[in-house]
Amino acid sequence: MNVYFAGGLSNLRSTTLFHAMARLGYEGLIISFPEETYLSVGYFDNVPQIIDLERCKKLGIPLIRREVGGGPVLLDRGQVFYQLILKRGSEHLPFKVDDAYRKFSKPVIRTYKKLGVEVEYKPINDLVVKGSGRKISGQGAGDIGRCFVFVGNILMRFNTRLMAQVFKLPDESFREDMVRFLEDNLSWLERETDKSFHEEEVAEVLIEEFSKDLPLNEIKDIPPEAIKLADKLKEELTSEETTMEDTGKTHRLIKIREGFFVRNALLRRKDEKVRVSLVVAEGKVARVKIEGNGFNFLKRLEGVPYSYKDLKGTLEVIMPKGTNIQTEDILKALYG
Question: Of 22, 232, 197, nearest to 111 (Cα)?
Answer without folding.
Answer: 197
